[in-house]
Amino acid sequence: MKSTNHTVPLVSIIIPTFNKAKLAIETFKSIANQSYTNWECIIVDDGSVAEDYKVLHAFVKSDKRFSLHKRPINKKKGANACRNYGLSLSKGHYIQFFDSDDVMLENCLEGRVEAIEASTLDLVIFSMGIYCKGGFKNDDTSDVMVNTWETALSAFVGKKRLPWNLQRTLYRASLIKERIIFDENLNRFQDVEFNIRLLSQLKPKFKIFSQIDCVYRRANSSNPRTKSFYKDVFQSIPIFLESIHTEIPSDILEHNRDNLKIWLFNLIGLYANKSLQKGELNTVINVAKEKLYLSNKQKIILNLLFFSKTKLKGIKGVVRLNSYLRKNYIKLNA
């Protein structure tokens, strides 16, 4: 479908951005090169340094379909506030959230619009490649190729891999506008929490397609994590747990409670480091005890894991210790 703007629906692409101008420009160029041409790209800057903002401003002047906005000062800093503001400005029949460090393949929008236009679906999901040597690969697994809101909801809290993320999904604007927004208190787990609430509250019809039409760029030296990343993870865990405890039907939550306990162990193992204080862990454990029914022994193990990751990194035998902690933590779920 080679688009002509008078006959095809407008797609609103909403992108929050913060510094990383070089990567963002690559993302914007991939959008400008789309075979589907009837789109608007609403870029909401979250307070980038002046030099980066100038780079973005110079680029958007080259194509009137791009618009650059600053997050309103009365909005809380963060990507979710930027997404909500961008959504309020959007005029499209379809909504495409995207990140400023990922890339659309040339037929991305065309394929998504064709799929949803030919159906009565509320949203369509396509696969996302991950860069590797020689190109990119599909990282999906068969267990997350779900087809109902109930199985998708269970997969979002019960599987190692998520069924989808924002970048992979084209939404009908009528499904989400003035019906659901992003939680602006969350700095991590943002799209997971959004999709869990969307599935639970709106119960949409959807389909997952295996075709890769966009590519994810992992954090590395040219795409670094923010300085606040690790603190943001720990501050967001209690908010996320409170939300899903409210939103997810009790039977689905109960069925996946043990998986969520393992998810918690894995997060602490991955992201605890010397920049964090013990009090930040205590807040996480107190909420997890209430929402996930952590046992006292599991609390002790999580404290030991945190100590290992923040105080013992690099010491001989610490990997074996962490493996021992994990084994015994999982046993307590039985």
Report on the architecture of this protein:
A hairpin with a 2-residue loop joins strand 6 and strand 7. The longest helix has 22 residues, at 250-271. With 334 residues, the protein is α/β, with parallel strands linked by helices. Helix 5 runs antiparallel to helix 7 and helix 11 packs antiparallel against helix 12 (318-331). It folds into two domains: 11-216, Spore Coat Polysaccharide Biosynthesis Protein SpsA, Chain A; 229-331. Strands 1, 2, 3, 4, 5, 6, 7, 8 and 9 form a nine-stranded mixed sheet that branches. The chain is built from twelve helices and nine strands.
Protein traits:
Spore Coat Polysaccharide Biosynthesis Protein SpsA, Chain A, 9 strands, alpha/beta, 334 residues, nine-stranded mixed beta sheet
